[in-house]
Specification:
By secondary structure, the protein is mostly helical. Among the domains are: 78 residues, Helix-hairpin-Helix base-excision DNA repair enzymes (C-terminal) (Endonuclease Iii, domain 2, Orthogonal Bundle), CATH 1.10.1670.10; 101 residues, Endonuclease III, domain 1 (Orthogonal Bundle), CATH 1.10.340. The chain has 14 helices and no strands. The chain is elongated. The N and C termini lie far apart (91 Å). Bound molecules: iron/sulfur cluster.
Length: 267
């Protein structure tokens, strides 16, 4: 794994590649971002952004959402998938905000993750983007990008979050997540577009896997050594060094005199 100064330099370079990196979810306050992030599980930000304007018009705050009927809510969020579970989480989250936090979104990890449907990733999204508290959400994109570059190791989000947070100053935590999420969506996809990558020179995966594959394909395309050409008598350097000669391929036709010579010899 790379040292902290290298991790910070790599995040800075990615920040230059994605100068406006931010969450792609649309929201106006912490409550809306919390609800939108719950909806984004197993869905896309684009899909959630289509659904939320009508949702927030009908349920503009935690008090309104806490009183929602599940059947009504399910219809509105149907296209985001897992709508029954998400409806339950949204109503439960809103009721907990009303009952335990005066309808406000709490600004700390423990209280957020105690809300129904809110895990560490969702809490970090809300803390970092809407509440001004450093948070580094780790999703599948961050896992892939960080492991490939070599700025984190492992497939457990909590461990990768701890590694990245340990290497970066808190004011860069949320940015580090945003730029890696965008990089994972646009360039460092499962099949990466390394020729468009600003951190290629620092990337372990590029050095150990991609460039090795490029060399292998290059060798395969250049083909095997040239074979000897019998029509010209030329051959490969190896054949010439052995003194190999083209083989004669035509047989001499036998004449009656040849047959007589054979009979005489037998006597
Ligand atoms: S060089 Fe390729 S594998 Fe490495 S981070 Fe960039 S896009 Fe991803």
């Amino acid at each position: 794994m790379k040292p902290p100064n290298a991790v910070e330099r790599i995040i800075d370079t990615l920040s230059e590649q994605y100068p406006n990196a931010d969450t792609e979810l649309h929201y106006r306050n912490a409550f809306e971002l919390l609800a939108a992030t719950i909806l984004s599980a197993q869905s896309t930000d684009e899909r959630v952004n289509i659904v939320t304007p009508a949702l927030f018009k009908r349920y503009p705050d935690a008090r309104a959402l806490a009183k929602a009927k599940p059947a009504d809510l399910e219809k509105m969020i149907l296209s985001t998938g897992f709508f029954r579970q998400k409806s339950k989480s949204l109503i439960g989250m809103a009721q907990a905000l009303v009952n335990e936090h005066g309808a406000d979104v709490p600004a700390d990890m423990d209280h957020l993750t105690a809300l129904p449907g809110v895990g560490r990733k969702t809490a970090n999204v809300v803390l970092g983007h809407a509440l001004g508290v450093p948070g580094l959400p780790v999703d599948r994109h961050v896992l892939r990008v960080a492991n490939r570059i070599g700025i984190a190791e492992g497939d457990e989000p909590v461990k990768v979050e701890a590694q990245l947070c340990g290497a970066l100053p808190p004011e860069k935590w949320t940015l580090a997540s945003d730029v890696q999420i965008l990089h994972g969506r646009r360039v460092c996809r499962p099949k990466p577009l390394c020729d468009q990558c600003s951190v290629r020179d620092d990337c372990d995966y590029y050095r150990n896997v991609v460039s090795v594959e490029i060399s292998r394909v290059g060798r395969a395309l250049s083909g095997p050594p040239r074979e000897a050409d019998p029509s010209t008598g030329s051959g490969s350097p190896r054949a010439k060094s052995r003194g190999d000669k083209p083989r004669a391929t035509s047989k001499k036709k036998k004449t009656p005199n040849d047959a007589r010579r054979v009979r005489t010899a037998r006597r």
